[in-house]
Write a structure and sequence with these properties.
Helix content is 47%, strand content 10%. It has 20 helices and eleven strands. Strand 4 and strand 5 form a beta hairpin. Helix 12 packs across helix 18. The longest helix has 19 residues. The structure holds adenosine-5'-triphosphate (ATP) and magnesium ion. Adenosine-5'-triphosphate binds next to helix 7.
Length: 422
């Protein structure tokens, strides 16, 4: 498709990606922009990263660029580093075979995919048609081998080849279907939708680290609310958050689900306005329903602090079997949870101590979401909002002296919650 028949806006193409393309071409190789960036340029979105596809083998790419690192075993790739920007360069892949550099599990999963081929082979082994377009900077044409332009125009997500086989090769494609449908606001073509419910359970065999990476893409792409709704519709949440799945019902009635919705809305808003987000917050919210349930069972036996610790141990042990959570995030989740009970104490010196806690901000944001979800009295969240804004004299007047226990009580306190509907 020549340049006058499409609307790729070149001003959104990264200079570094252009450099990589011209260097590879200068060294005598074919090289195109490919995948998500071409798709995004065609529908008028700004690509978040740039991928290049070439007939140069990874080692040959490495010879052309000093700033190149080869990564991946399952799928070998070259990363070209320009400061913080990385241009991903993949060699054209051919369909896999049972021998040599490709390996397929008996359930259909492709375990290794390093058989090289030509450009057209490469297009056919990609996941969705709209992800298989190539942009040629030498004449500004778009190259389409799989009928993708029709799907771009009708905003349709269509699996290349037989959807069921393609999901079996790589079950993560089910999550990718949901992610692109939500992010691009595309509809999933019926045959591409059909096998998802039946094959969802194959996600159980995906390494937990890959599912963690995919979760971040699902929920930190500014369409978390829509993504969550689609995951629920296709019954895939149970393979990502098995402990919480029982709270996620169509009618979004449970306060556990309302908290998740509030937190996803908040995440989308933060990302759209360029504010940082942390996976710890997402996981803390996703597991809060089961956390309250665990606490109900444990709180009367041990002090609050310990009950939260024990409940967190139990929940994380299960969750980690599904999605890994790097330690720095699980530590932060625990802190967010622990601090919830300390918001109850609004007398003495403790409110000031809490303000100084390094996780105060995240824990306070979490408290506000709990209040929005109707799980804690809005008055409590409002009190903390006001307390932060006042000077010390005014803060002293705000203290709830009458709440302070008359005598030191040994009885463990529990988080005040309204009943949670399961
Ligand atoms: P994003 O905008 O999220 O980066 P993307 O389409 O660029 O979307 P990537 O995960 O960056 O997605 O992958 C780049 C390209 O590689 C895809 O467009 C697709 O062509 C191909 N691809 C990635 N993952 C798979 C997969 N699991 N199966 C088949 N093709 C894939
Ligand atoms: Mg990409």
């Amino acid at each position: 498709m020549p340049r006058n028949q499409h609307q790729v806006s070149r001003k959104h193409i990264s200079d570094n990606a252009l450099k990589v393309l011209s260097r590879l071409r200068g060294a005598g190789y074919d090289a195109y922009l490919v995948g998500g960036c071409v798709r995004d340029l065609l529908i008028g979105q700004i690509p978040k990263d740039f991928d290049v596809s070439t007939n140069a083998h990874p080692e040959q790419v490495k010879e052309v660029f000093k700033n190149c690192r080869l990564i991946g075993r399952r799928f070998r790739l070259a990363h070209i580093h320009f400061g913080r920007e990385v241009i991903e360069v993949a060699t054209f892949r051919a369909p896999h075979s049972q021998e040599g550099e490709s390996l397929q599990h008996e359930d259909g999963r492709i375990l290794r995919d390093n058989v090289y081929g030509n450009e057209e082979d490469d297009a056919w082994r990609r996941d969705f048609t709209v992800n298989a377009l190539y942009y040629d900077i030498s004449d500004f044409s778009v190259r389409d081998h799989v009928g993708a332009m029709v799907d771009i125009k009708s905003r349709t997500l269509r699996m290349i080849g037989d959807p069921s086989e393609r999901y079996k090769e790589d079950p993560v494609r089910m999550l990718r279907a949901i992610r692109f449908a939500a992010k691009l606001d595309f509809s999933i073509e019926p045959a591409t939708q059909a096998p998802i419910k039946e094959l969802g359970a194959m996600l159980k065999d995906i390494p937990s680290s890959r599912l963690f990476d995919e979760l971040l893409k699902l929920f930190h792409g500014a369409s978390a609310v829509k993504t969550f709704q689609l995951l629920r519709e296709y019954d895939l949440l149970r393979y990502l958050f098995p402990l919480s799945d029982q709270y996620f019902k169509e009618n979004a009635q449970s306060s556990a689900e309302q908290l998740v919705m509030a937190s996803l809305t908040n995440t989308d808003d933060r990302i759209k306005s360029g504010k940082p987000v942390t996976p710890a917050f997402l996981f803390a919210a996703m597991l809060w329903g089961p956390m309250l349930e665990e606490l109900k069972a444990k709180s009367h036996k041990v002090p609050q602090h310990q009950a939260i610790q024990l409940a967190a141990d139990t929940l994380l042990t299960t969750q980690l079997q599904y999605t890994s959570i790097p330690r720095r995030f699980s530590v932060m989740m625990r802190e967010i949870w622990q601090l919830q009970s300390r918001f109850e104490t609004r007398w003495g010196k403790r409110p000031w101590r809490l303000l100084e806690h390094p996780r105060f901000r995240a824990a306070y944001d979490f408290l506000v979401l709990r209040a929005d979800a109707g799980e804690v009295e809005p008055e409590l969240a409002d009190w903390w909002t006001e307390f932060q804004e006042r000077d010390e004299e005014q803060q002293k007047k705000m203290l709830k002296k009458s709440d302070a226990p008359k005598k030191r009580s040994r009885k463990p306190r529990s988080i005040t919650t309204k009943t949670i509907e399961v």
